[in-house]
Amino acid sequence: MTDSNSTLFCGWDIGGAHIKLAIADKDATLLDVKQVPCALWKGIEQLELSLDEILASLTGKSFVHFVTMTGELVDAFADREAGVNAIIDCVESRFKQPIHYFAGNGQYLNADMAKRQWTDVASMNWQASASFAAKQIQQGLFVDIGSTTCDIIAINNHQTLSSGNTDYARQRSGELVYTGAIRTPLMQIAEEAPLHGERIPLSAEWFACSADVWLLLNKITAESIQDHSPDGKPWDKTHSTMRLARMLACDIRDASEQQWLNVAMFFAEKQLQRITQACYQVLSRHNDWAPNSPLIGAGFGRFIIEQCAQRLGRPYVDLSSLFNENEEAAAHAPCAALAILAAEELS
């Protein structure tokens, strides 16, 4: 696609809450990985602003852009096709260099083709990262937990195996679980929680989210969270505990610090159970797999996957080890994988 040794390959992952960008050189070496907030559900102008912010830093080089997306599902759009079209139009209006849309299975489409084949473009980011892992893993379960969702993809003989490509089909098969390490409302994780020896039904409100749980359990830091908290207050242990208490129609003073930590551990356990059960569901299609086939953990919440691997009795491989120990690449796997795959295949 390009003969220039100075051309850089940009992998973009446009989601409903963030934009992720990775840049690789012609040797498929990652030079940069970054994420910026993008509240796309508020309208397409949010994507315009976030893209302008990132593009302002891409100067002085020749770039080729490769785009994948999941943001078409947000309720700012009438349907997913309208979302794909709006995202493509926004990207095309701002990028001045070649743009290619990832359609899975190593296919890259121009804007017109991507609109016509929108079902091949919508929510296909998981295939980029799973395909990257499959090039280096002979057999295993690729699991990517981000801020909002969890992808679970079987790999066998260096090939990805999925029961479907749409979110609808993948949710039915257990390959897509709508739970993440940051944005998941706690009322989606459980219906009740234990306190003072009783099981308390939860408030049906977005008072607290999974980030509050993992922050209290020291698995994530306030600095690593780019999203707003449910109440708009800071990400710290005091405010996270206040939000957690509100889910049980309580105040922070109604229980001890250790009791609130116990509640947080309960929610962590429930989320871990849900992901582990989905892993069992996907693994149930592959009964002849070797017992030492690993779980490959990607995404911001991959610390959860390591715990799943322990429960499944399988080895754990952190995706960062396949990215030359690049932690940011492992946290934002689809854009990093897309940049590397494009550089390897097309430079």
Automatic annotation (TrEMBL):
<dbReference type="Pfam" id="PF01968">
    <property type="entry name" value="Hydantoinase_A"/>
</dbReference>
<protein>
    <submittedName>
        <fullName>H4MPT-linked C1 transfer pathway protein</fullName>
    </submittedName>
</protein>
<dbReference type="InterPro" id="IPR002821">
    <property type="entry name" value="Hydantoinase_A"/>
</dbReference>
<dbReference type="InterPro" id="IPR043129">
    <property type="entry name" value="ATPase_NBD"/>
</dbReference>
<dbReference type="InterPro" id="IPR002756">
    <property type="entry name" value="MfnF"/>
</dbReference>
<feature type="domain" description="Hydantoinase A/oxoprolinase">
    <location>
        <begin position="67"/>
        <end position="317"/>
    </location>
</feature>
<dbReference type="GO" id="GO:0016787">
    <property type="term" value="F:hydrolase activity"/>
</dbReference>
